TrEMBL record:
Record's GO cellular component terms: nuclear RNA-directed RNA polymerase complex
Protein name stated in the entry: RNA-dependent RNA polymerase
Annotated spans, Disordered: 1-25
Species assigned in the record: Collybia nuda
Taxonomic superkingdom: Eukaryota
Domain RDRP core: 171-793
InterPro entries to which the protein is assigned, alphabetical: RDRP, RDRP_core
Polar residues: bias regions: 1-12
Record field: catalytic activity: RNA(n) + a ribonucleoside 5'-triphosphate = RNA(n+1) + diphosphate
Length: 1000
């Protein structure tokens, strides 16, 4: 595409005006009458966990909420009954940090094991004190609170799950988590919200009965929780101020500050002021208050302003502009003063260009205002961003900018199956894509086999760290809910994967997890990391070498194999020169159609000239996932426009023309969508643009049904029903997000249609648009007509074969699968044939030394001093370790998958740890051992004596690594865990390693 001469005529935004929002609509009689009903009260109910007699005892003793939750959790899991709880109330008094982690031990009379992590329970106490203070401290921006700097609330998630029973459904409580925060939890308090996870399969097979079950109120410890919103296979329930079964509100715990269900709705999404919206879209607006976010800045009411959108030149200005004609859809402005304050709060040395967040009734992205230099923070919300209307004066919560994410330096990207199929259709030769995949795979995997040289282990450590993103994972663990706001992760993945866990499985896991309030990423007993890459990394830094340590060598082979498998099966092709970033509309209006601007805040390197540059120029490919249509990737011209110098780390697109560039790319907008920008010449040069692939005529009419019912119309319809029927109907509206839209299935249908007919075939195009419509069905209320899904499944619900039929032309994914598989087999063969490792089975003498020394000492004392105490204690240690070893062997024999190589990068609750019993037995104290001082070291060494394979590493990983490190003649650098997990190899040292490798 030839470059276009940019116009230098700036198109500055229209001057902001205040006040900006249209006057709120007045409620008509029918909505007002509906609101007079006691919303969320006249519903049927289900008991989660409650006993009237015991609850009175708990309230009288002022048992803290975290303790009560743990008691109820044990009840729902069948670990104890209410009579057992009632008999132990006297022992349950105290703050959560002092008692909650001991609930299991108190009720079941079990000894404590290990050192508890009190982080979660301390947060429970902190939030409870903020509730009692009742000054909106939980919303944040009020400084330090009870030892936590810059504190804000809502950081605890009370998790529950729906379990299918023979006679219906049951709710089981899970261990609370401390991983995120959202506005609703900050406003109400974490304890007032329960996130109920509903298995996908349950929704698929029993949607109607599940919805009926969830259209109730739920009773937990005498408190009433009512479902408010369904999102990502989770239902969010809020505690209301309704009293249950004569329970009296407790002033000691802040019950007097609870709110009614109607008040909660009116606070976030008032029905009367938003009554002209479709009721289905109104219901989706609760998702805005549930987004994982971080409160960063509060604006004065007069500094929250409205600015109109920029529209396509050919828009008729009749009615509401469609998204494709709204050139700034979802993107507002924020002044430099506000951006600087946010950057300071986030610990950024350079202010960001774009901020994704939630403010007032608006959502989306905000970029720096091009002309405003006011020292007071200001923000402009565009019409396309405004989703909820409120009355003035504004609630403090609605004046706080809740940050979701920020723009940052470029991150490299990879092609996936969707973009690969698009590129192949649009002119990229198959052999180019095959070469990129094989070369990329080789470049990723080969460093795992480079073990020779004075710094080889440091380079290997760095490779393992990079491939497994260990440093990033550790940072996400330590930053909890801030990972997205800090730019460590992208958009929310959606719902957690929920398995259909039956009651027996829940019981089995309950005891081992009941006292684990936080996820540390490693076994609390052995210290063994749960991630394979982190395990290998810690062994390498302890002094183990793969050619002499079979356990490490097996881990590295597994990492190698998994990298090959994921690359080949997911069709990942790394593109080191390409990047991803937020897409934003040109704030100056000087880019021409087909032009983009990208400037990195950090220097990039041209691999051909080895020179640094910041601004991308020349032809590039831009696209946005999901990529399903020929026009979803476009070739554009990257230009250097000096006037846009301050807009770094974002992809700026033109606001000129007749069609929004973001909308052209898979129907995107500017509310936080990310584009990928491809620079590799082998992909850019042969690419041929395709015009917009339009939706087939009458597709929506022929395939979908759905009455677009306004809030007004809904209220009028249900007023003729009984109060309970009306409220149940209202609950079902709130639960519209919990539906089997079949989005995933239509994604697969599209994949098959592309393979069977071709990418641009009308059947593939239809499947692409069916997918897109279903993706937004929770907002639109559209549902498939009867028979449509069955017809489509019959035609497209098939698996793509592993190879091409001989009569058809090659399919690009088949070509890549064949080439990647062959390359992977060759790389694994090379790994297995690394010189000197095949037959190396010698034991590690360093690991045997502590036990040998202890044995020699015991023998010497017995022989020379006639004292047998040391030998007797050594026998106790041996018996203790041997008992754990027997449990380990039993677990291995019973396990369907005993190999430690199958360890996955998942939280413990997502995998069955067959070695848990052995680790627990091993970790117990050994009564009677008083003279031997280095008991843990001797235990670990003897465990290695018993089995130099996997046993010692599984039950004593921390100690084994410590023994190995201290045996290294180069010395040990002592470090506590937080410092160790914060370290990384500097870029300068990486350059040294590369130079050193090059001179070998």
């Amino acid at each position: 595409m030839p470059p276009k001469t940019p116009s230098r005529t700036k198109q500055t935004p229209s001057e902001p005006q205040r006040p900006s929002f249209p006057p709120p609509l007045k409620a008509n009689d029918i909505v007002a009458e509906f609101l007079t009903r006691k919303i969320g009260i006249d519903l049927s109910h289900t008991i989660v966990a409650y006993d009237k007699r015991v609850q009175k005892l708990l309230d009288k003793a002022e048992i803290s909420w975290g303790v009560q939750y743990e008691l109820a959790r044990g009840i729902t899991l069948g670990l104890w009954n209410w009579d057992q709880v009632g008999s132990k109330v006297g022992k349950l008094k105290g703050m959560d940090a002092a008692v909650a982690y001991r609930v299991k031990n108190i009720i079941l009379d079990l000894p404590l094991q290990g050192r508890p992590d009190l982080t979660l329970w301390e947060e429970f106490d902190r939030e409870q004190l903020a509730i009692l203070e009742n000054c909106e401290r939980g919303l944040g921006l009020k400084g330090e609170w009870k030892g936590a700097p810059d504190w804000y609330g809502g950081q605890i998630q009370q998790i529950a799950r729906v379990v299918k029973e023979d006679n219906g459904y049951q709710i089981q409580l899970d261990i609370p988590e401390k991983r995120r925060s959202h506005r609703l939890a900050r406003y109400l308090g974490s304890r007032r919200i329960i996130q109920l996870r509903v298995p996908d399969q349950l929704v698929l097979n029993e949607q109607q009965s599940v919805n009926e079950y969830l259209s109730q109120k739920f009773i937990l410890c005498g408190r009433v929780y009512v479902p408010l919103h369904a999102k990502d296979s989770s239902v969010y329930m809020v505690e209301t101020n309704e009293e249950w079964d004569e329970r009296q509100p407790g002033l000691w715990c802040g019950d007097q500050y609870r709110k009614s269900f109607a008040d909660i709705i009116a606070w976030h999404n008032p029905l009367d002021l938003n009554r002209k919206q479709p009721i289905s879209k109104w219901a989706t607006r609760f998702a805005l208050t549930l987004s994982n976010s971080y409160p960063v800045l509060i604006f004065e009411e007069e500094n929250i302003l409205l600015i109109d959108d920029i529209y396509a030149l050919d828009w008729s200005k009749v009615g509401k502009a469609p998204a494709e004609k709204t050139m700034t859809d979802g993107c507002g402005l924020i002044n430099a003063a506000a951006a600087r304050e946010i950057a300071t709060k986030m610990g950024q040395s350079i202010r960001m260009t774009a901020i994704q967040g939630r403010l007032f009734g608006g959502k989306g992205l905000w970029i720096i205002h091009p002309t405003d230099n006011d020292p007071e923070p200001k923000i402009w919300i565009r019409n396309s961003q405004s989703k909820i209307v409120y009355n003035y004066p504004l609630d403090r919560a609605h004046r706080i900018l809740d940050l979701l994410s920020i723009s940052g330096p470029p991150t490299s990207t990879s092609l996936s199956r969707q973009s690969i199929v698009n590129l192949a259709h649009n002119g990229i030769p198959h052999d180019v894509l095959v070469t990129l995949m094989v070369d990329g795979l080789t470049d990723e995997v080969k460093p795992l086999m480079e073990w020779n040289g004075p710094h080889a282990m440091i380079a290997l450590w760095n490779t393992v760290n990079r491939l497994g993103n260990v440093s990033g994972t550790r940072l996400q663990r330590s930053t909890a809910g801030l990972s997205r706001a800090l730019g460590l992760t992208g958009r929310e993945w959606g719902h957690d994967d929920v398995g259909m866990t039956d009651k027996a499985a829940a019981l089995k896991e309950a005891l081992e997890e009941l006292a684990k309030p936080t996820y540390t990423g490693r076994s609390e007993y052995s210290g063994l990391p749960l991630g394979m890459n982190e395990t290998a990394l810690e062994m390498i830094q302890s002094g183990f070498r793969p050619e002499k340590a079979p356990f490490l060598r097996d881990k590295l082979r597994y990492i190698t194999r998994e990298k090959i498998t994921s690359t080949v099966e997911k069709y990942q092709i790394p593109l080191p020169q390409s990047l991803t970033a937020f897409v934003v509309p040109d704030p100056l209006g000087i880019l021409e159609e087909g032009q983009v601007y990208y400037r990195s805040s950090q220097a990039m390197i041209n691999p051909d000239t080895q020179t640094a540059f910041n601004v991308v120029t020349g032809d590039v490919l831009v696209g946005r996932y999901p990529v399903r249509l020929p026009s979803d990737i476009q070739k554009m011209r990257a230009v250097d426009i000096p006037e846009l110098l301050h807009y770094s780390d974002v992809i700026v697109v033109s606001t000129k023309g007749t069609f929004s560039p973001a909308s052209l790319l898979s129907g995107g907008d500017y509310d936080g969508d990310e584009l990928f920008l491809i620079r590799e010449a082998a992909l850019v040069e042969p690419f041929k643009n395709k015009p917009l692939t339009e939706m087939p005529v009458n597709l929506q009419k022929d395939n979908f049904e759905g009455h677009v019912e306004s809030v007004d119309a809904f209220a009028e319809r249900v007023m003729s029903l009984s109060p309970r029927e009306a409220q149940t109907a209202f609950q079902q509206i709130l639960l519209l997000g919990l539906n089997d839209s079949k989005v995933g299935l239509y994604s697969k249908f599209h994949d098959y249609a592309v393979f069977r007919y071709s990418y641009a075939d009308h059947r593939a195009v239809r499947m692409a648009y069916m997918f897109n419509i279903l993706l937004d069905s929770s907002k639109t209320g559209l549902r498939l007509k009867p028979g449509i899904f069955e017809r489509d499944r019959g035609q497209f619900g098939r698996e793509i074969p592993d190879h091409n039929p001989p009569t058809t032309k090659p399919f690009i994914l088949h070509s890549l699968l064949l080439a990647g598989t062959n390359a992977g087999h060759e790389l694994l063969r090379q790994y297995d044939e690394i010189s000197g490792i095949k037959n190396f089975t010698a034991a590690d003498l360093d690991l045997k030394t502590p036990f040998n020394l202890a044995s020699d000492h015991a023998r010497k004392v017995s022989q020379e001093l006639k004292i047998n105490a040391f030998s007797e204690e050594l026998s106790l240690i041996k018996k203790h370790v041997e008992a754990a070893f027997d449990a380990f062997k039993t677990a291995c024999a019973k396990s369907d998958n005993p190999s430690p190589q199958k360890q996955r990068n998942k939280p413990r609750r997502e995998k069955k740890d067959s070695m848990l019993v052995a680790a627990q037995l091993y970790a117990r104290d050994i009564p009677g051992v008083l003279l031997i001082r280095n008991v843990e070291e001797v235990k670990a060494s003897y465990a290695y004596h018993l089995s130099s394979g996997t046993f010692a590493f599984n039950v004593a990983f921390r100690q084994i690594c410590d023994i190995k490190a201290h045996a290294d003649p180069r010395g040990v650098a002592p470090s506590i865990r937080p410092f160790d997990e914060a370290k990384a190899i500097t870029s300068q040292f990486q350059k040294f390693l590369k130079r050193n490798d090059g001179n070998k």
